[in-house]
Amino acid sequence: MNDADSPSPLAPLLTDEGQALLAALRDYDPGQELSVATRLRRDHPAELVSAALTQARLRQRAVAKFGAEDAYRMYFTPNGVEQSTRASVAGHRAARFAELGVRSVADLCCGIGGDAIALARAGISVLAVDRDPSTAEVARANAEALGLGSLIEVRQTDVTEVDTSSHDAVFVDPARRAGRGGHGPKGGSGRIFDPEAYSPPLSWAVGAARTARYAALKIAPGIPHEAIPEDAEAEWISDHGDVKEAVLWFGTAPGARRATLLPQGAALVGRGLPDPRVRKTGRYLYEPDGAVIRAHLVAEVAEELDGGLLDGTIAYVTADELRPTPYATAYEITDELPFNLKKLKALLREREVGTLTVKKRGSAVEPEELRRKVKPSGPNAATVFLTRVAGAPTVLIGAPAGV
Q1: Nearest alpha-carbon partner for 90 in 260, 297, 266, 268
Q2: What pLDDT digit, counting tens, does each position of 325-378 carry?
Q3: Judging by DSSP bridges, how do beta strands 257-262 and 266-269 pair with one another?
Q4: What is the pLDDT of residues 96-109, one digit of tens each?
Q5: Exposed, middle or buried: residue 235 (CB in 10 Å: 0-12, 13-18, 19+)?
Q6: Cα–Cα distance between 403 and 399 in angstroms, integer?
Q7: 237: which strand partners?
Q8: Helical spans, DSSP H, in 32-154
Q9: Which residues contact 341 (CB under 8 A, 6 or more apart)?
Q10: Which of 53, 99, 197, 317 has its CA 20 to 30 A from that of 340?
Q11: Helix, strand or coil for residue 180?
């Protein structure tokens, strides 16, 4: 029996019996899976129970990315939950396409359809392509489950064989992990760092992007800036402070660097500023958002804050005034001392600090190690920064500053 003739693992879940099981398992406790499975197998086939339990677990995990309303209607694969685009990020990207006037997108390496869903909800028709039969089946089921089947055509084929010329734009999401179902190699699950080891390779994806009027190419946030094509705009996106992905845009602003912060949607675009000056510690320390740092836009934030760097190699901005900015978190600094564990422990004991937040940048000391050694105790809270000031190992103590 070949793959085309093999029974679909998803099909039983789409029956009335399968749907009833999934509804019953919505809020089940995975810690009680054995007893739940034993009970359900009295009335349902064992294979169906196993498939439903697996899907129920995946749906619970997917709530963080897709929200409960969508997650409990959708279908997932283990790789799909892990690697699919967070709904807020996909929605942002779809909105950018819509603002460009895009009405149709070829979504290459579509996975379980997270981006296709966001594009369709923005009123864009989508050709969603994935090589893996099971993944393509899940993407198709998700389009139908969310009422978007009329806008999303799912095609199971190799993305390198798809003619995208009839579409306004192309979106490419190459596999960056070994073992991804869509277009990646089988066997492992490790993250891939070499862009030419993406599946398909970055060079192919860039070529595909250049065939369309507009294109977006999803890449790892850690991509070296020198690997970014000159004709691409590079955008780094964070969600609630966590960097989620980077995107190369074609047809928008060649050479631009952008940091986008979700959920507020604040966007900082680079102006080619020189490196900020290094200065002594001011009253406030600003920790730039990770997307700002990845986009190499710390200088733009420092200028906005009329600040400078504590050290020329570290992305901490210091300033004398407290100014509101969405691009950095502000802390009021109360103490600065050369790194000395004994003195730090004594100072925290004197301040009765029991709730200790430790941040590090440019220090070899691990936060958990420091916390164990100073043994914080008391009713007060403080934030400790392990860093360098003008090259010297330094400890700064402070607290979040209200604006």
Answers
A1: 260
A2: 999 999 999 999 999 999 999 999 999 999 999 999 999 999 999 999 999 999
A3: antiparallel
A4: 999 999 999 999 99
A5: buried
A6: 13
A7: 245, 260
A8: 33-40, 46-66, 68-71, 78-83, 87-99, 114-121, 133-145
A9: 370, 373, 374
A10: 317
A11: coil
